[in-house]
Structures are given as C-alpha cells and as structure tokens.
Amino acid sequence: MKTIAVSAALCASLVACSSSPLPPASQATPVLQSSAGIYTGPLSTQQKLTLLTKLDGSAYLFYRSPSTARAAVDDVVVVRNARQSKDGKFESSQATRYRLVQPRKATPVQVDIDFSRAPAVSGFVAVPGDSADNVAFSANPAQILGEPPTLASVAGLFSGTASSLQGASGAQVTVTGSGLLAGMTANGCEFRGSLTPSSGLTAYDVSVTYGGAPCIDANATVSGSAVLDESQLLVALPRPDRSDVFVFSGAR
C-alpha cells in the first residue's frame, strides 16, 4: 500500500514540474572530446566505480558495493573545474568526496585521471594529509545497455535509495517521456524538476526543486547529473556550497 501511495503522489506532482533551463556551465577548461563519457571498473577498496566525465570539466564518481546488483551508493565524488592537458591527464583540486555511510562526512579531495592509454583509464582520489584514505581505480568505457540517452530510454518509475550526509531512506523517482522528473523519499521529502540528455554523452543533466522539510535543503533548486548504468539510475545533486549532496540509486 505504501508503494502505491508514493507512486500516486509522484504522478500527481509531475503536473507541476518545471522545465526551467539549467544554470550556465562552470568556467572549467573544456575536457578533451575523446575523454568525456562513462567508465566502470574496480576501486582499490573492492567497491565498484561508475565514473562520468563531462565536457565542461566536471565529473562524478559513484562508489558502490559489488555485493548486489542494485546496491546503494556508498560514496560520491563531485569534481568541478577540472583541467585536462593534451597528453590526456585530467586533474582537479576542486573536488569533494561525500561519504554516505558512517562516518558520514564531506571531504575536499584531489582527483587525477589518466586518459593517455584510452580506452582504459586509471586514476586516484587523494585526501590531503591522509594517505591511508586514498583510493585508486582502473576503468573501461561502460557497456551501456539499450538506447542512447534519449528521454524515452530513461522514462519510467525507479525504486531505490536516497542518501545524503543526513541519512538514507527508500525512495522513488518518476521520469516522463517529456523530461519531467518527480521524486519522493520514504521520510516525506518531495522534489520535482527536469531531466535532459547531456550533449555528446550517454548521460543526463538534472535540475530539481525540493519541497519543504524534511528535504536536506528545503525549497532550494539544485542541479547535477544522472547516468543509467546497467538499467540502474544514478543521480547526484550537490549543494552549491558543497556542504551536502542528494544521491539517488534505483532501478525500474
């Protein structure tokens, strides 16, 4: 009964969804065309990595447990204003790792990715002053199933987990064929907005406005990115001040 009620609320809230444009891209150095994309592979922590690198110099790294196909996201790293040299080296000191399991915290990190041996890539996420918490990875271009990033390929009702530094709960997200998005967590946070295919990538740009409490940033509008990884929708919406992030991981 609870699932039916949540689904009904999502469908009703879609009527009021906004399709306002995303804010302008950052002032980052553009990423080389050949390096932008989605990559998957193992982390040195034995977790699974899904890496999204975008043409505007931003990147998203989702860490998930390999124990189940539909695991919630344990950590997400959000990279802004990355630089990339012609030899394929990508680096940014303006990155934040959000640990979504205990101890929950946001930590500034350095992200380096080597695309010089593409299609295989390697890299690391370094925590300044704490080498024991550094993470290395290797990855290859993801074998994305299904269609390119059209709205039709992502439309549907996704059920999974919503996480932030405040905690985690069950959640559902509905995406329509016209790009409207609405979601609700089990603890009562509602949000709505838009999802559009990213230019030149098998990924999506997302913008949502939260409802009131108990949302982590009541009534605020935030933007981020989403990717379909083996039919699982991964969404990351960081706060502009980088103090927290809203992450959804779910499947149809």
TrEMBL record:
Keywords: Signal. PROSITE patterns: PROKAR_LIPOPROTEIN (PS51257). Residues 1-18 form the signal peptide. This is IPT/TIG domain-containing protein.
